[in-house]
Specification:
Structural class: mainly beta
Largest sheet: 20 strands, parallel
Helix content: under 10%
Shape: globular
Distance between the termini: 20 Å
Number of domains: 1
Number of strands: 31
Number of helices: 6
Mean pLDDT: 79
């Protein structure tokens, strides 16, 4: 899968980050420390509102030593450290499969799918599955009616299924004439809470504008190593509040070339019924005139992921967070190829809506931002942020801006590097290799943390 490798080393007392610009030749990924840390839910939201120590103009919040714990009191600076540490520890547990804790079932049935197996199509096996069962699908391509499946139904008790491709990816492929699941919603429509879907591909959904590779109508769903491409909508989740408290996790997934050119179809669309949206070690690119990621979740975590606007894809802004909420972008790469629009993140644009959810946390840490257009700020804020009532936490990021501006909250003294694509000197930006070369001016700009490294 095409994506960049970003890794972190979290220390017990302070925080050291190895940026996403290290070469693969440097060795294995560095694991996050096993030092126990507080769960995210135990750490209070940072009170950035109406606090003079946390405005964009404040000298105290702009000092990297303050956030890194080298000096100062144990107030918000300590909260920043603990929160980043906890987020990355949780991401590591998600990678390992130890979090979230799944319900254990005694003697679950294993339903096998393949040419010489009990079930010949995924649809047939999924229709027979009960809560806790495991559906194993032989690698290969499955088409149309045999691939399309509704997993559970609204209000039923089916839950905690595991559905995985074995021996390679199992691809669910529909064509324009295929009747999609749940009245045209998607190749798969997921109603079963607690489902885990692994090593599955979804493509071809074209029933209508919102026809999706995967339509998610449930909570606490994990997608692992899935490929969602060439649908009118990639992954689409519920847009109401009936599933408050649930999470959606995409780990090691790829989203490519979804959208129908309307401007309202995206690679990933997470509705406001989601409490926690995680995108980990994943890659999103090539959407047709939509967003690479659009999230209305109350908490969005973009960890070690690449949001890349492919050439001539007519991609919109890589990351759109229209109704606010807490946002954490850590160790990720966001690139805008549209020469008419320099924006990389749009935040809070629907701040006057009745469903607006103001966020207290907005963290950008150890990220790389690349844009080629003139005009807009790369980080666009509306609502409370534009009014100065809140200030985001932006540290140790690289801004390669050929035109445009990073945004008023980006300060070089916070370990950030502001330059252009040439001065940053990426290894091969034309082929989307945004690791730093040996000659890069951005090689050791971070303060308080280890900062971006050469390899």
């Amino acid at each position: 899968m095409k994506k960049l490798i970003c890794v972190f080393l979290m220390l017990a007392v302070g925080l050291t980050a190895v940026s996403c610009n290290r070469s693969e030749s440097d060795g294995d990924e560095i694991p996050i420390s096993n030092t126990p840390v507080e769960p995210i839910d135990n750490i209070p939201e940072t009170d950035m509102k109406n606090n003079p120590e946390n405005t964009a103009e404040s000298s105290e919040i702009s000092e990297i030593s303050e956030i890194s714990g080298d000096s100062g009191d144990s107030g918000n600076s300590d909260i920043h450290i603990r929160k980043i540490h906890a987020i990355l520890q949780t991401a590591d547990e998600i990678r390992a499969g130890t979090y979230p804790v799944k319900t254990a079932y005694e003697n679950p049935a294993i339903l096998q799918v393949g040419p010489d197996k009990q079930y010949k199509t995924p649809a047939a096996a999924i229709a027979k599955a009960k809560s806790g069962d495991i559906v194993e699908i032989d690698a290969g391509d499955y088409y149309n009616a045999g691939a399309v499946a509704q997993i559970g139904s609204a209000g039923n008790s089916l839950k905690d299924l595991t559905i995985r491709g074995v021996g390679g990816r199992a691809n669910m492929i529909a064509d324009a004439d295929t009747k999609l699941a749940s009245g045209g919603q998607g190749v798969w429509a997921v109603y079963a809470n607690g489902a885990q879907i692994e090593n599955i591909g979804f493509s071809g959904a074209a029933f209508d504008q919102s026809a999706s590779g995967v339509r998610i109508n449930a909570m606490n769903i994990i997608f692992r190593n899935c490929y969602i491409a060439h649908n009118n909508m990639g992954a689409l989740s519920y847009n109401d509040n009936q599933y408050d408290g649930g999470y959606l996790i995409f780990i090691d997934c790829e989203f490519d070339g979804n959208g129908n050119g309307s401007g309202s179809s995206h690679n990933v669309y997470i509705g406001n019924g989601c409490e926690k949206f995680w995108l980990i070690d994943s890659y999103s690119t090539g959407v047709d005139n939509g967003y690479l990621i659009k999230t209305r979740a109350k908490n969005s975590y973009i960890i070690n992921s690449s949001l890349i606007c492919a050439p001539n894809s007519k991609s919109g802004v890589p990351l759109n967070v229209p109704i606010g909420g807490n946002l954490y972008v850590i160790g990720s790469v966001l690139q805008q190829n549209n020469k008419q629009d320099s924006r990389l993140i749009r935040y809070d644009e629907e701040s006057t809506a009745s469903y607006y959810q103001p966020g207290l946390d907005y963290y950008l840490f150890n990220d790389t931002f690349i844009t080629y257009a003139n005009g807009n700020d790369c980080l666009q804020f509306s609502g409370s942020y534009r009014k100065g009532e809140y200030a985001p936490v932006i540290y140790n990021c690289i801004f390669a801006v050929n035109g445009g501006n990073p945004g008023k909250f980006v300060k070089e003294e916070n370990g950030n590097y502001i330059g252009n694509v040439d001065s940053v000197s990426f290894i091969d930006p034309k082929n989307y290799d945004f690791r730093l070369s040996d000659e890069s001016d951005a090689a050791f700009v971070g303060k308080g943390f280890s900062g971006p490294v050469k390899k």
